[in-house]
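S2.1 Query sequence (AAA family ATPase)
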Amino acid sequence: MNATEKEEREYLEEIKEKLTLAIRRIDGDVRQASDELREKKQYIHEQQSGMDEADMVAAEQSINRMAFTGEAAVARKRKLLKLGQSPYFGRIDFVPQGKEKWPVYIGIYSFLDERQRQSLIYDWRAPISSLFYDYELGEASFVTPAGPMQGTIELKRQYKIRDGRMEFMIENGVNIHDDVLQRELAKSSDDKMKNIVATIQRDQNAVIRNETAPVMVIQGVAGSGKTSIALHRIAFLLYRFRETIRAKDVLIISPNKVFADYISNVLPELGEEHIPELIMEELAADLLEHQHPFQTFFEQVSMLLEKPHPAFIERIRYKSSFDFLTQLNQYLLYVENNYLVVKELRVGSTLVPLPFMLAKFKTFHRVPLLKRFALVAEEVRAFVRDATKRKLSNHEKNVIGEAIPRMFKFHQVMELYRDFYRWAGKPDLFRLDHRQRLEYADVFAFIYLRIRLEGMSAYDHVKHLLVDEMQDYTPVQYAVLARVFACRKTILGDVSQTVNPYSASSAETIERVFPQAEVVRLYRSYRSTMEITAFAQRITPNPNIIPLERHGPEPAVLHFGSEQEELQAIKGLIADFKSSGNQSLGIICKTLRQAEQAHRALQAEGIFLLTEESTHFKEGIIITTAHLAKGLEFDEVIVPFASARSYQTEVDKSMLYVACTRAMHQLTLTYSGEVATFVNS
Ligand SMILES: Nc1ncnc2c1ncn2[C@@H]1O[C@H](COP(=O)(O)OP(=O)(O)OP(=O)(O)O)[C@@H](O)[C@H]1O
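Output structure tokens follow.
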């Protein structure tokens, strides 16, 4: 051990000591708070009879305050305990111009020596911590609340501290990030998504710390860290704007419950509370007030995979186009200009003249059309009241209330939605599914019409919206999101990983809906070995992808005489996996039917079947579909039934690409008959 390392180890012990003391102090505070709380409750209980309402309110407030202080102390203690395990991961010695050297240790949370009023550990989100991510040795600057601060970085170190013990320390080198990154990526993954604070890369840091973009669109290749970055960005914004945004003010829209569960660890690991999340279908059901049953996205994709009917594809294709949104908007104009015929109105002996009626409709022209009638009716009632100089009877009120909506051709948004297809000259493109539900492609278009015609304010409280898997949402869906969520947004995805190529959106499409968006493109891929990335590139090429230099076995493509033989061989692969040291294995099929078939054959091997109904991510060996595996990753992936018979269409190709890009270290495809042509191309 050299002198520097010895010094650092001693310093680590010192910090741990200080953390232990701080924890003890908190324990004391918590004990005191709980004693006081008990005493206060006792006092109130005894004095209750003599207290008036104001006393009771004051007592309740003081109890709440005490409880809050107690809870805050407990939360702080939890953070300090975690810091005790791994207090910091980086250090820079920064010398601001004309000032003394400033050693800055950076950790997952901040730690202040309260007695000396000195920061011992800086939160990774603090302004000064950006130096660690953005610069090597030499000149550097960061932005403080008082303006930019220039200086020089004289030293940069990285540490891996686990269970309070220093595992390694890396000094100054130009590639210090790469060394640690390589070690991190070579590890096996056994669990849910993890935080990456110690190895955030410069381009990723720029996205995380962007404070200005009203809409941030991250288009990144498979494994480029999009989801990780987006979650770190939320943690950053919660820190930076802690006075105005709380965890409960953020909303994550995820593709499914398993994914939501898979990512649910990251923010708590970063010390933030749980963030509310919804899956797209839940949002849709909520916006439809649970009144219109509809097909799910999974069901739509399953139909495309199992029975790809041309008319069904045509409906999806049309409703996923930007033109469709334009036509809906044109139709709304047409409705305004043609379906509302304002007339004069006779109420008893009073005539409400046409100019009055027109003027009132004009006054409310910004109000959604179907909401205007009630407002105009109020005005008309006032007019008649003034004219007759008496109160109106209920009958007269009702006459007015009913007569005005009658000036409009339709009453239900569903009638208008059907009419849209007649107007567009495409009546065949609207169909309910075999269970009389809306097809998935219609859900957001119908919601869009509802919002435009009836208004909506259900999600005004959301201050930041995160949308993952953006490629799977259509322009109409984005138009709905834009209207429902007026807040800032982070939208991320990869157009190569669409599960439905007929309805895929690229960053460019999203830019058309959000012209104010800042688009960032990420090409470095961190997840897979170069061999796996090269293999996946043969399925869906992307010349821009930059795989991180990390090697592993070549992906294997194994041929068998029959499906039985194939499944028998997979049992052998599972046994190999169990003795390999790898911790997670994903067996990823094209369809649920295939996954169920494989599950039946492999059940004895302790495999968990993940389906659309699953709500939790499972560790170990999982069998699932490519659609559900999207966003997840495994040390090892097996793709069964990778035959030409099974993988034929564009949708199939997307599925194969998604399945292969889930593998971090090892990938095996098995098939019987002919191998899928996408694999050979
Ligand atoms: N800077 C980094 N340091 C360490 N690991 C990283 C970094 N960036 C990404 N990773 C790792 O790369 C893997 C892929 O990250 P993530 O799932 O966020 O990517 P993604 O772009 O959302 O992937 P996909 O679109 O393929 O689902 C994860 O294991 C993540 O921890």
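The longest strand covers residues 147-162. The chain has a mean pLDDT of 90.
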